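Suppose a classmate hands you a notebook page containing two proteins, each written out with its sequence and a corresponding row of structure tokens. How would you begin to make sense of it? This section walks through that situation. The first entry is reproduced here exactly as it would appear on such a page.
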Amino acid sequence: MMRKRARTSLNSPVVDVWKRELGELSSRNFAHRLAASEDLVLRLDILRKLDKHRGCVNSLSFNAAGDILVSGSDDRRIILWDWETGQIRLSFHSGHHNNVFQAKIMPYTEDRSIVTCAADGQVRHAQILECGVETKLLTRHHGRVHKLAIEPGSPHIFYTCGEDGLVQHIDLRTRTATSLFTCKPVPSQSYFSAVNLNAIAIDPRNPNLFAVGGSDQFARLYDIRTYRWDGSSEFDRPVDFFCPPHLVDDEHVGITGLAFSDQSELLVSYNDEFIYLFTKDIGLGPNSAFTSQVSTGSDAGDMTSDNDSDKRPSNVDDNVKDAPQAYKGHRNCETVKGVNFFGPKCEYVVSGSDCGRIFIWNKKGGELVRVMEADKHIVNCIESHPHATVLASSGIEHDIKMWIPKAIHRATLPTNIQKRRPKSRFWMHRMVSPEDLMLQLFSLQRQGTGPESSEEHSDAGRDLLQLLLTFDTNSEHNSNSDGSSDDHDDDEGRDATSADDCSV
């Protein structure tokens, strides 16, 4: 019987250097394996803090080359950083009247075209000119707009989603916005008029596919090829749904972040729950009738009982055994947090947490490998560099922290990782407006409030009323940094930011 060869005591990067020198490892593979090395992840440390915003930093994004980091904040300004030196290349007012939630540089535009969205419901386009920066209103949502997604490799096309449930397609060549659909809840949750959307992501391997997620438990996948521009198609029907089996009937969770890997895997971050990785073969299918037919479980990966197998549709029965990979340890209940991949081939999963830390897991297997102190309050944004082992993070504090593998000693996991908090509905304060709750209550009242009303409607009404009564309309994060009101309007649809309003 052959014995297993003893594992070498040398670190993998050292072995890779030796193989490269002997010609057994190509330079490209060496660079990829080195960038994905756990040794580098364990040596991540703060290079510097970028501290010029006057509010929470809600958005971080690198340009394609990776030498510029663009940030957006509650102070409504956009800053382009030379993050390696810590210098500001450009700073300008976004034109928004409320907190900026996303700012991205359009590819192949020499970093002169930036699209933004914000809490005022506006989607804007900023063009960097020789004499200054010109910002224009492209479209609006009826509610906050948390995220936008750029079609991979396109300098013109991107998508937006908002708390009104609307998904829009925007082409900068014509400056027109096409309303694709309003995301509707599944039948068992029909007392809501729309799903308040918080996240949208495009599959980099197939840009025809994009996913959205929001105030319910389902990530929905759509195919733009099924849309007809004359509006005659029923495009609001997803081509696939994704949800962990034990959350299918849980109406108290929602999705705060989405990300696609370069292998078309979909990463979904839930409030008051975990992060899950879905491969395209474990979706629940395009039929939303699977709800209320999969038993809930007490933890991730719980399966349905054999007694319920005859109640499930065949697509659920086939896929329920293939539970998605879960990533645990962080807390996500106080804010709308993003989630991301890290590494040249998406070898790691990264997320912020309510405890002010950054969590890094191995994508394969879900093992927690690193926890880093990053904010005194909450970490919301983690952005991976497109080429190097570099991370940018931000949260409730007003600065941005740049992380590179420069620590002399390898870090170890802390022993005081805080446990998850009890389930809370504070997250819905970010996703549902008081006006929307009032509309839902009014709709339920019209369906019947007397003895003849159903128990389901009564329970739903009590839940909505309780949430409305506890709604925190004075949340610090949702208010303007200068205390001003967000009840502004842009009748012209255009703001020209002069050179005097920019700092270079």
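The notebook's second entry, a different protein, reads as follows.
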Amino acid sequence: MRDDIKLNERAKAISQELVEKLETVYDSEIELDIYNLGLIYEINLDDNGHCRVVMTFTDVGCGCTETLPLDLADTLKTIDGIDSATVEVVWQPAWKITRISRFGRIALGISPK
């Protein structure tokens, strides 16, 4: 799991599964998954199997702000132990290009440094 994503203890316990699922959800305009794009800020999983994700977008005008959170919630619910999920979209702190992972930079043709 990326160091810049805040996780509670329950989420840490399933972090590998979370990463695998996050890598399947794509920002359709940039054509990179939301994990490597750096859109996820926080993931919390409670005792009742509810997962709460805090995320952002690259731009306020992003065309997928309505659909992507719903897709993400549906994807998370396919993980054993997650029965429900909500996604909170925040604009602060603002997303920066430096949040893109090394893999993401290579995939987008940006210098990996």
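A careful reader of the second entry would note: The chain has a mean pLDDT of 94.
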